[in-house]
């Protein structure tokens, strides 16, 4: 239904404290965009700026080609679902959903039809005359979503809608939201979360925010397979990607890197030029891509300090070589017993290896 | 002995007495009455624990009984006797009182007070609380509006006597009338019927601060997100205030309203100081005071009528306050 375009958008409090700057983003109709990032990165602020609850201090926001910077929230064609549900506690479910339509002076027939329809979609029909306090957390969140649906907005905004739910309900509601999105293919949604599982499962594209700006925009698997920088590489995926210091020794279609720390070497399917020879890089290997080295070549050698057996996988934490380093983690499929204290040689397939110079991936040059 | 020393001594004896009572009575209960003896220590400990709450509650219950329950019964009993207190006349005091024109005026005026003062105080308090909520100098404004709360009713009345003074050089009202070309000053306190409202205004002036403080805290307690949701739903500031904020603090508004109502039913100082109950401004408490020490039978009868009127408001008030706490 709607395109959204952010151009050089920025936010500064009191003209001095800058929290966001130079945000450029194009969102097309029917997308479900997820903003993720560490806490305090400004993802909620950006969403609230789109909603109109926070003033945009730099750049422009366009919805369907119309500049919305100074348009009041109600006229932007957006609807928002809050983390705390934000239901009106003194109104029944029906009145909560009808409130916006009553304010907009819609006829009673229109209001009733919209409310009944939303209630049917969200399976709230039998709860219409209850007060919010008589509902469970999941039902309250559905009412909050229903309040958005009745307004038939161009853009749906979700601000961490599942954070207040318990783990089981969170999964169920996440699937409900995915189904809801599927039933409304032409609606545009922006979804803020700090939970990367939500981001990976729901998003058509993920926007990773860090350091006041966008670290990378892309489909979930693009971010996982081809992260642009070390931040995205470590933020997406759990446990985080291992980064090992190394030096490029051979260049070409396949790059050869030695790792002085573990005294091994590894090749990566990343093309490099002669100029890169001798360059200091960080070798990135995801824990799940680490495999036991069979031959004399290995990338990392370490002693297993902790081993977590989860059944389907075994997570190995290697002893740190320096206390300030993060431990290297390997996630091996299946069950491995009695590995604690063993010295192991690890490596990874060349297509699974990432190379970063000065924090940026060598893939994107 | 100097009064200062007396005061200090009184405090020491009072506080020491309290501490001494709780300590000593507890000790006696545990060591003398129900000592945990060798034969059956558990039973005695349980017994002591059943008695202990009553032991600690006793001073409060005793004081409340002596100074609240007994006077109620005593007053009612006294109201059944004649002026001198030596002849039982049943409900005679009540029948003559209800027939008295002064009492009827007082009852009617009191009705006006109860109608106007709590409503106006709560309304202005809510208005100020909302208007000062987001202002940088809001706290200064609130402090100024709260200040009359610190003035006694008699003190406030004296201040307003100047405002209402029958003299254009002193009285604010007559000064304003003078500005608009009135030749003769007017004594507003002698304006029949309307003078009641000038007196009520003093109490509204005092109580607005109280309402404002409580309602301001209640407004702050409203989840900000419900307001933001209403903004997104397209509500304008008036709709947000009346349809989202006020309903959410309705419980608090009722508590403030009823608390002021109870206060209004007890206030006599303002009327007593301003007009002495003349010019048709009598209300029940001042009517009672005018009979006190002259005709205690009649005075206690009035007191009882006031209590009967206050009682339902009081019960409602306590119920609401309890519901708010839950």
UniProtKB/TrEMBL annotation, chain A:
Residues 4-236 form the ABC transporter domain. It comes from the Bacteria. Keywords: ATP-binding, Cell inner membrane, Cell membrane, Membrane, Nucleotide-binding, Transport. One of its GO terms (cellular component) is maltose transport complex. One of its GO terms (molecular function) is ATP binding. Pfam families: ABC_tran (PF00005), OB_MalK (PF17912). InterPro entries: AAA+_ATPase, ABC_transporter-like_ATP-bd, ABC_transporter-like_CS, ABC_transpr_MalK-like, ABC_transpr_MalK/UgpC-like, Mo/tungstate-bd_C_term_dom, NA-bd_OB-fold, OB_MalK-like. NCBIfam families: PRK11650.1. Belongs to the ABC transporter superfamily. PANTHER family: MALTODEXTRIN IMPORT ATP-BINDING PROTEIN MSMX, MALTOSE_MALTODEXTRIN IMPORT ATP-BINDING PROTEIN MALK. This is Sugar ABC transporter ATP-binding protein. It comes from Litoreibacter roseus. The lineage of its organism: Bacteria, Pseudomonadati, Pseudomonadota, Alphaproteobacteria, Rhodobacterales.
UniProtKB/TrEMBL annotation, chain B:
Gene3D superfamilies: MetI-like. It is found in: Cell membrane. Coiled coil: none annotated. GO terms for biological process: transmembrane transport. Residues 107-317 form the ABC transmembrane type-1 domain. GO terms for cellular component: plasma membrane. Keywords: Cell membrane, Membrane, Transmembrane, Transmembrane helix, Transport. InterPro entries: MetI-like, MetI-like_sf, UgpAE/MalFG_permease. The chain crosses the membrane at residues 6-29, 50-73, 111-132, 144-163, 197-219, 249-268, 299-318. Pfam families: BPD_transp_1. Its main location: membrane. Belongs to the binding-protein-dependent transport system permease family. This is Alpha-glucoside ABC transporter permease. The gene is aglF.
